[in-house]
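User: Okay, second chain of the day. Same drill as before: sequence in, structure tokens out.
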Amino acid sequence: MSEGQPLFVGGAWVAPDGGHHPVTDPATEETVGWAPEASPEQARAACAAAREAFGAWSRTRPEERAAVLARAAEIIRERLVPYADLARAETGATTGTARAMQVGVAAARFRRYARVEPAEWPIAPQIHEAGPMGKAGVTGALAVRQPVGVVACVTSYNNPWANPAGKIAPALAMGNTVVVKPAPQDPLSVYRMAEALQAAGAPPGVVNVVSGRDVAVGEAVVASGDVDMVSFTGSTAVGRRIAEVCGRDMKRQLMELGGKGAALVFDDADLGSAVAGIGTTFSFYSGQICTAPTRVLAQRGVYERLVEHLAAYARGLTVGDPGKPGTVVGPVISAEHRARVESYVALGRKEGAVLVAGGERPPLERGFFVAPTLLADCGNDMRVAREEIFGPVVVVIPVEDEEEAVALANDSDYGLIDYVWSGDVARAFRVARRLRAGGVGINTVGRNMEAPFGGFKRSGVGRDVGVYALHAYSEVQSLVWPG
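Assistant: Same drill. Structure tokens below.
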């Protein structure tokens, strides 16, 4: 596969009709490998292969499907170092992030869905009086989770391991088959995941991977008549286009879209905790993560100190080669994305924001690096405060009190994950419940991986993670009988 990665269709490694394109290491600008360019016809063939495999796979015992997922998890763990090296080279993530948060999380997700859980649950019997529908009697009922069918998994570039695994594992556990369309910037890792699933015993056609830079490839997958559901992670703009296609054919959708996470920091907050949590935006994936707390709403009493400490935090981070142990901030994914992030920083200054830290391009000979950047004295009406930048940029907005903080937090097109820092736990929970977001971190940016994940408003449709993913990748069927 060193000469060019083939596609994975129907259990076979297939030469792509469109040749290959280079995958670039965003830290060195060197070529990591050659990704396949599928044709729309090959994309449709992958969907047909998944449809053909669905019947047999959906009828396998849940324990058999779980065994495949468990073996895949073990294979991924055994190959963690080479898989993580590839992920680091494709994405620019640091070695630690690639191992723990990319490949490590992927293995954990396959292990999680190797746990067989009940797919049916009883409903209380209902007593009926005699009437036009018949004699008096009792009806029993059972709710049963059934697989949706063929699931198209369209995944994002920022985590080519955890994101696809979070879709593939629960979808397969429920008896669905999948067609994965990875992001064109870093698809090679997803082919390694398919390789692991094949070695784990996934039957031909149960997992298929087709990639390409041409939007026609993704469009062919989403529009295929063989596809019953689309699970997408990416921008709101692309999500809207996918939703339009799904709507025409009444396809199920799971959409995890953009975010502009508000971090509400009150006067009584633990400043160190708030700075450390918000500071992850500067470092974790270089801010290329939809859950990042990028929009800080700081109460006046703590505002100046918070800005000062965030600036010091940003300036103290080591930017550079993600393969070196001391590096904290790696590059963004591409030169085009770097230009986009830099244009937002310039726009923020033009809008009246004060540049407190960063704003310059780090003095490195190669790589698509952006210095961790802090913009203060922002207004919630500025574009840098309203639009997703997807880079290591944090904007800080002063607020007077709780009411203003909640009002500004909710004044957003997005609602994925917000955050509240306050020493008054009762207030923190009270404020959290008023926020129009799918999740709220209270004095933490940590995640509970069994908690439902998804967004309000333009941040998405549906919920997954934990048992919620099993619901997301299933249809619920009712069985009713006379008692």
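DSSP finds 16 helices and 22 strands in the chain.

User: Thanks, on to the next one.
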